[in-house]
């Protein structure tokens, strides 16, 4: 019988037969957060003790999966579930001193869920749990299908948020703080990542700037940009040297150099709505951006 199985059996028998087992005060945050592809840190602290057994598990609907077992100074790697082998560590030499923090490396969406830290020592036993929630940062960009010109009062502006997690709500604000609404036209790819978009008609002002705000339950990202403006053509050139893109799904993208390029992009009406199923997002249009930044939401 393995040491980990014996530990579980001892816990059950102690409860059933009334054997004396002092409860250890194990402390664990209610939630833990990590960025996809990075390292998740699940803190677990308790009173220092000798002959310590530290047992991390992943809780499922009907069972527990072994994540990391530390038995009196030794990592019992053979007891780890195959999905976690080679991806978990605890602070060297620290579990006996009261620090049983688990580091889970290269996290994926499959790692999201509930984890349990169980400790047994010569002073008793204790258990605590935490919920691991994952963050996938979005790639933000603007889509402006038509340049602003003196003949236009408004222009359509779309903010795209691609390849992030969890599902985001997209909002557009101008520099005065005016809110042009929120939208969640979204698609989910086979890997479980989301793409979302919001489209708004905004005034064609040469001095206006707009900020795209992408909100999830865990974090916020912002991106600010200015509208693309149609440059007046010299009278003697007329339209001879200007390329004009015509047809559905064609967008003019303004680059920092001021050059004009034509790229095939979906029209706002053709953007997919969230279906709840695996659908790859077709959005691949970029425009000139003034500045962008992201920040974690303060909770």
Write the layout of secondary structure elements.
Blueprint: H1 3-17, E1 31-35, E2 40-42, E3 53-59, E4 64-71, E5 74-75, E6 88-89, E7 102-104, E8 113-121, E9 124-135, E10 139-143, E11 154-164, E12 169-174, E13 179-183, E14 185-188, E15 194-203, E16 209-215, E17 219-226, E18 250-254, E19 260-264, E20 291-296
Parallel strand pairs: 1-9
Antiparallel strand pairs: 2-7, 3-4, 3-8, 4-5, 6-7, 8-9, 10-11, 11-15, 12-13, 12-16, 14-15, 16-17, 17-20, 18-19
Description:
The protein is mostly beta strands and 299 residues long. 5% of the residues lie in helices and 41% in strands. The protein has 1 helix and 20 strands. The chain has one helix spanning 3-17, and strands at 31-35, 40-42, 53-59, 64-71, 74-75, 88-89, 102-104, 113-121, 124-135, 139-143, 154-164, 169-174, 179-183, 185-188, 194-203, 209-215, 219-226, 250-254, 260-264, 291-296. It has a 6-stranded mixed sheet with strand order 1-9-8-3-4-5, covered by helices on one side. Strands 13-12-16-17-20 form a 5-stranded antiparallel sheet, with no helix packed on it. Strands 10-11-15-14 form a 4-stranded antiparallel sheet, with no helix packed on it. A hairpin with a 2-residue loop joins strand 4 and strand 5. It is elongated and about 80 Å long.
The helix/strand order is: HEEEEEEEEEEEEEEEEEEEE
Report low-confidence residues grouped into runs of 5 or more: 1-21, 236-299
Helix content: under 10%
Oligomeric state of the chains present here:
single chain
Work out the helix count.
1
Trace the largest sheet across and list its strands: 1-9-8-3-4-5
The general outline is elongated
- Give the N-terminus to C-terminus distance in angstroms: 46 Å
The whole-number mean of residue pLDDT values reads 76
Class inferred from helices and paired strands: mainly beta
Biggest beta-sheet profile: 6 strands, mixed
What gyration radius follows from the Cα positions, in whole Å? 27 Å
Keywords: Immunoglobulin domain, Membrane, Signal
GO biological process, one term: regulation of cytokine production
Subcellular location: Membrane
Domain Ig-like: 25-133
């Amino acid at each position: 019988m393995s040491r980990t199985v014996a530990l579980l059996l001892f816990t059950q028998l102690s409860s059933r037969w009334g054997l004396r087992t002092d409860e250890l005060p194990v402390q664990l945050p209610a939630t833990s957060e990590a960025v996809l592809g990075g390292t998740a840190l699940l803190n677990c602290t308790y009173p220092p003790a000798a002959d310590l057994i530290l047992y991390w598990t992943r809780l499922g609907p009907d069972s527990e999966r072994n994540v990391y077992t530390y038995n009196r100074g030794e990592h019992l790697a053979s007891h780890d579930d195959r999905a976690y082998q080679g991806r978990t560590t605890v602070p060297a030499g620290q579990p006996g001193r009261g620090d049983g923090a688990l580091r889970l490396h290269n996290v994926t969406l499959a790692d999201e869920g509930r984890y349990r830290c169980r400790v047994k020592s010569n002073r008793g036993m204790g258990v605590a749990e935490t919920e691991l929630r994952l963050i996938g940062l979005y790639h933000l960009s603007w889509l402006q299908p038509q340049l602003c010109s003196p003949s236009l009062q408004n222009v359509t502006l779309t903010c795209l948020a691609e390849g992030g997690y969890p599902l985001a709500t997209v909002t557009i604000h101008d520099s005065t703080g005016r809110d042009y609404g929120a939208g969640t036209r979204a698609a989910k790819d086979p890997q479980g990542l989301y793409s979302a978009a919001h489209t708004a008609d905004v005034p064609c002002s040469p001095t206006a700037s707009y900020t795209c705000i992408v909100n999830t339950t865990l974090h916020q990202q912002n991106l600010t940009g200015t509208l693309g403006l149609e440059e007046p053509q010299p009278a003697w050139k007329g339209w001879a040297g200007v390329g004009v893109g015509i047809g559905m799904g064609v967008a003019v993208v303004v680059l920092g150099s001021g050059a004009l390029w034509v790229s095939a992009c979906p029209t706002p009406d053709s953007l997919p709505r969230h279906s709840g199923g695996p659908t790859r997002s077709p959005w691949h249009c970029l425009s000139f951006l003034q500045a962008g930044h992201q920040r974690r939401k303060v909770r």
